[in-house]
Specification:
94% helix, 1 helix, rod-shaped, mainly alpha, 98 residues
Length: 98
């Protein structure tokens, strides 16, 4: 049988201890990597949602601006039509009295 000297046995225990520590560190690093990857995915999702929100906001602003321009144009046309009707009513009233 192969017998280890006391010094060799301590050296083997030291190596085992170092290997155990290295394995624990590796496990800890893997956990940190998983956590970082999860945070990365969450940030990517938040970024995507922010971009979607910004696009939606820009579209709504554009639609609102177009609707406002259209409403103003209709208002101007309605005002002109009202003025024309008043003029026509005034002409009819004037001719009725004369």
């Amino acid at each position: 049988m192969l017998e280890l000297s006391e010094e060799e046995a301590l050296s083997a225990e030291h190596l085992d201890s170092q290997m155990q520590k290295a394995q624990e560190q590796l496990l800890q690093l893997k956990r940190q990597q998983e956590q970082i990857e999860k945070q990365k995915r969450e940030l990517e999702e938040l970024s995507r949602r922010q971009e979607e929100l910004d696009r939606g906001r820009a579209e709504m602003t554009d639609k609102l601006a177009r609707s406002l321009r259209c409403a103003r144009a209709r208002s101007v046309r309605a005002q002109k039509r009202l003025e024309q009707l008043r003029d026509d009513l005034g002409k009819v009233s004037d001719s009725t009295w004369n």
